[in-house]
Design goal:
The protein is of the alpha/beta class. It has helices at about 5-25, 50-60, 75-85, 95-110, 135-140, 155, 195-215; strands at about 30, 40-45, 65-70, 85-90, 110-115, 145-150, 180. Helix 4 (about 95-110) packs parallel to helix 5 (about 135-140).
């Protein structure tokens, strides 16, 4: 597919998704300007729900590259759409070896890539420890790192439910409203000299700070 057409489809999909997130889930965004508009950048976020990539992607202000299980690409029509909106297939969730290779390729090409370093959607809505794969990735790709936090998606659409439960903007707010926050880019040089454990703890603290900001802006 021609690049301009693919970009137009991504933009249209982002606008439609943004409308429904605001209309059905009262979604709010803060800090989107912290995402660099050009050049490679790695966005790292907590993972509460199936909707997280859409929520983070819509608020980022630029086209992102996403990772998804290969099983989602079995259907030819679905595969074509996913490829059009910058979704890259990997063997498993998380930042495994294949994921690292694909992310590095995209970063080297100047793209913005979204990664969920917990490795999978939360089972209980809590923010869990980051998997070591993200540290390995950062050791190989020295690019700006933007921490992002989401709040509300677990309540709205946890992995335990087949369908979401909306909290429309025209009704009284509930615990299912959503928020997403982006922090200032971290220079990868600030992580130099840290042990892998220290690096993971530092990045986790960065994301946790944005989760708190996302929680604070939710419609309540």
């Amino acid at each position: 597919m021609p690049r301009l057409l693919a970009a137009a489809i991504y933009e249209l999909a982002a606008r439609i998704c943004g409308f429904f997130l605001i209309f059905l889930f009262s979604a709010r965004t803060v800090g989107g300007g912290n995402v660099p508009r050009r050049g490679p950048v790695l966005i790292i976020a907590n993972h509460e729900s199936f909707v997280d990539p859409i929520l983070v992607g819509v608020g980022a202000g630029r086209h992102l590259t996403f990772l998804a299980r290969k099983t989602l690409f079995k259907n030819a029509l679905k595969r074509k759409f996913l490829e059009t909106v910058n979704v890259v297939p990997i063997d498993q969730e998380g930042v495994g070896k294949e994921g690292i290779r694909n992310i590095i390729k995209k970063l080297q090409a100047g793209h913005a890539v979204l990664v969920f370093p917990e490795g999978e959607r939360s089972w209980d809505g809590n923010f869990h420890a980051l998997r070591p794969g993200i540290a390995l990735l950062l050791e190989r790709a020295a690019v700006p790192i933007v921490p992002a936090g989401v709040a509300g998606p677990f309540e709205a659409w946890s992995r335990h439910r087949a369908l979401p439960t909306p909290s429309p903007i025209f009704l009284a707010p509930t615990t299912r409203t959503m928020g997403v926050a982006y922090g200032p880019p971290r220079d990868p040089a600030t992580l130099k000299g840290m042990s892998r454990k220290q690096m993971l703890e530092t990045l986790r603290a960065d994301i946790a700070a944005q989760i708190r900001r996302a929680e604070a802006i939710r419609r309540k």
